[in-house]
Amino acid sequence: MYEAAFKVLEVLETREGPVPGETLSNTLGISRSAVWKHIKELINMGYEITASHREGYRLKKSSNRLLPYEVHKKLKTTFMGMQMRYFESTSSTIWVGKQMAREQDPQTLHGMVIIAEQQTGGIGRLGRAWVSPRGGIWATVILKPNIPIDRVFMITMAGAIAIARALRKEYDLGALIKWPNDIYIGDSKVAGLLLELSAEADRIHYALLGVGVDVNVSPNDLSAVPNSVTSISLEVGHDVDRPVLLARILKEFESRYLLLEAGEYESIVREWKSLSCTLEHRVRINTLKTSFEGEAIDIDEYGALLIRKDNGKIERVIAGDCIQQ
Amino acid sequence: MYEAAFKVLEVLETREGPVPGETLSNTLGISRSAVWKHIKELINMGYEITASHREGYRLKKSSNRLLPYEVHKKLKTTFMGMQMRYFESTSSTIWVGKQMAREQDPQTLHGMVIIAEQQTGGIGRLGRAWVSPRGGIWATVILKPNIPIDRVFMITMAGAIAIARALRKEYDLGALIKWPNDIYIGDSKVAGLLLELSAEADRIHYALLGVGVDVNVSPNDLSAVPNSVTSISLEVGHDVDRPVLLARILKEFESRYLLLEAGEYESIVREWKSLSCTLEHRVRINTLKTSFEGEAIDIDEYGALLIRKDNGKIERVIAGDCIQQ
Questions:
Q1: Is B66 buried (19+), middle (13-18) or exposed (0-12) by CB count in 10 A?
Q2: What residues does CATH 3.30.930.10 cover in chain B?
Q3: What are A's interface residues with B at a Cβ cutoff of 8 A?
Q4: pLDDT of A9-27, one tens digit each?
Q5: Is 3.30.930.10 the CATH number for A68-274?
Q6: Which of A58, B138, B160, B287 is deepest in the core (most CB within 10 A)?
Q7: Interface predicted TM-score (ipTM) of this complex, two decimals
Q8: To the nearest whole angstrom, how far is the Cα of A201 from the nearest Cα of chain B?
């Protein structure tokens, strides 16, 4: 979609000054009216382009949307994000990913990234609502993992590491991972992850890693969130380039994901631990079955948290709510 | 479907001799032509019913199909199999179950059993073909498990125990469990199981336990199967009552499943071990990633097999092919 429009954009991007319509028409081998149609498409996608009869078209400002074209320009991965789908607005990218993985061979979708400018029904763990206004990164990666089923939740660990590393490298923010799958800056949540799985014991049909990052989002837009939240723009004091950030997250995620596929579980666990704000803290754990307090002492090689209860007994939890005290 | 026909059948079953059409018509408050329509439906379902103008209708012989009506008569469960769907022929019951679980709230389907007289595209582990001719039990149970995600493959253990116990109790056969999910009599496979899963870390959306049992199946009908196979009819020397067997399997499965939901994992592991023909044997394991030999020494509390390799190292495998030597 819009490939021809992006060809026009490419020409505008490579020229310093304005480009006459005739030049665009000749360079791309399309009519003057086709050029004008694509210029209008680009303007609709948020690019600021001026048109003058005398000088021609001039790109004044890039779009501030999270367009695949812009992400691809920054992307340095080998397979992650090579395919992307973009939605102005959708219910949730993880729901879209599930539909795609059911209808197509997941192998052909491996590394596909689904992006939405906003989600009308964003979901978090346990079906909880995930507030997803414009300005964030609301994306889902479709994977066909070739890893043993009991390692599958290490994909979430790899994703959490990727987000924390990206925030550190791009903005020098002290992002840390709160078990099981949130990213915090100080006492406030800035991002979260959700892994969806379709599998039998011997093989994973597909996994979907949904990520939500509060990027250029004002606290007012997140007021429906019950916990303390922050955003990157709030932390750094200005809006940041979302395509750059998403490309960085995908790059960091790809390198950790490939470690998983190579069976290098220990190095994922080690990096996760080095970024954890949960370990060595007193926590209350609420699971499906039980609720208890203790000290989070370690994470095991499957991603389960180990808690030392007050009676000295060690509990192992693979999933649950963790309230740090 | 066919509720009215089964009401007619109930009357025929409770009377010793033949029942005049007029009696059926009066008892059930339906017309004589409706009675005849339902008699024809029952005959189509495999019931042998004679009709004489003088005497009326007489049930000569029950259907030899695996009809929900017949299974329900024998069923002693509290929720398992309370809902059933029957297919003369379908691609695979696990595929049907997946469609149902996607389209409806899985909670309302908890315990639903899908039965097919034959499967045209029966599937085993890793998408392998599962030969499913008439005479077997090809069924899938839909579950909405309230158990932690890392315990989910214990559902397969519970199902394997149920089948082995049912074959022992009903026919005194020395059925044993071969890891991960087959039932053997001597050196020949008689049944298998497959668990399909849709989940996130914190909750299981649904699980489907597919079971295939070679019941009244001749070896010729299984000749496409590469391994050594047997059937119950071959072992006991005559065809057996499939509704009785399925009702027994569901009863045995329900009781173990409820242990799982109650967190009584240890008792499932203990019973599984007591029925295992894999433990204490030398095995070759082929997984996604690796292949090795060793002695199967134990199964852990998540259903993973522990193998002592020749170098003394213990390997833990949650899934794979196991060739016993």
A1: buried
A2: 68-274
A3: 102, 125-127, 146-150, 153, 156, 180-181, 194-203, 263, 287-289, 302, 304, 318-320
A4: 999 999 878 999 999 999 9
A5: yes
A6: B160
A7: 0.89
A8: 6
